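Need tokens for this chain, all 148 residues.
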Amino acid sequence: MSGRDNQAYSPVQCFRVRGSFSVNFLHKNTFTRLQVLGYICMAFALSVFAAPLGIVRKVIKTKSVEYMPFTLSVFLTLGAVMWFFYGLSLKDMNIAVPNVLGFIFGILQMVLYAIYKNHPKKMAEDPNNKLQLSEHIVVDVVKLGSMV
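Here are the structure tokens for all 148 residues:
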């Protein structure tokens, strides 16, 4: 028995095998395969643009932009615009459509940054986080190394 027989596969590898099986073997028509692959890629692109929505909620709740870097919003918007025009030039809606949403979310983030950039920083209160340290402990590594 070889060492590969006992190897466990990660969920990502299983998803990749299942996804490629679905795209390659379940759909004999090339056009249908490309459509399925386009929808899968569109779902991943939309998840990239929807990910910062949790931060947008925190910015509105705390009225502070300390959790949302402005450069991230700018480059998210620029990337979405560039990919939109690339998809438009190829006449590929699987590339163009998700990037319209990315452009809208990027503009939303920049508008929120403009609104809340001068507000004082306020930490979001977490009711589950009740542990607070009253003093800091500093360990001198050089002294600790000489003791060992």
